[in-house]
Write a structure and sequence with these properties.
Putative manganese efflux pump MntP, manganese, mainly alpha
Length: about 190
């Protein structure tokens, strides 16, 4: 898997955090440096750690799935992508589950875990296709942190203009990468 593929996986994974950052920004109205830092740091950190956890879990079962690992990667990335697409068409903006300052305490931890669960499955997928995890995890974390900062800073403007289209784009990217992995293995 080359850098560009990992980059697009990272972009696809960061869309949930980006959308939640926009929603948090809209909720907060006045965003401070602390809000921006907390969301960017925590979303980036969780997005970097979860694929490592998934990769470790995936490596422990890789010998059992090596004959159909490309199907596992395709399936997981497609499910994650379809989930993002489905959520992009739902009416829920995620604002109902957050009360008060979403950049503090348990709300921040829950949002960080919720936006990074998909990265856990991607880590399993990367283990299935025998990709080293450290560069992808770092790239996923950095890109997610950057998208979260942008989403928080420009949340009101981005949310009004693009809304759920951002999440749909992330889902489509993940599905396309899943198809690419499947085709590479089937045609080689």
């Amino acid at each position: 898997m080359n850098f560009l593929e990992v980059f697009w996986i990272a972009v696809g994974l960061s869309m949930d955090a980006f959308a939640v950052s926009i929603a948090c920004s809209v909720l907060l109205c006045h965003v401070s440096f602390r809000h921006i830092f907390r969301l960017g740091f925590h979303f980036g950190l969780f997005q970097a750690v979860m694929p490592v956890i998934g990769w470790i879990a995936g490596r422990s079962v890789s010998e059992y799935i090596s004959a159909w690992d490309h199907w596992v990667a395709f399936g997981l990335l497609s499910v994650i992508g379809l989930k993002a697409l489905k959520e992009s068409f739902s009416d829920d903006d995620g604002e109902n589950s957050v009360k008060g300052d979403p950049t503090k305490g348990l709300s921040l931890i829950l949002l960080s875990v919720a936006t990074s669960i998909d990265a856990l499955a991607v880590g399993v997928s990367l283990a299935a296709v025998n990709v080293s995890i450290f560069q992808p995890a770092l790239l996923i974390g950095i890109i997610t942190a950057c998208f979260s900062v942008v989403g928080t800073v420009y949340g009101c403007r981005i949310g009004a203009r693009f809304g759920k289209k951002v999440e749909a784009a992330g889902g489509i990217i993940l599905i396309i990468i899943g198809f690419k992995i499947l085709l590479e293995h089937l045609l080689s």
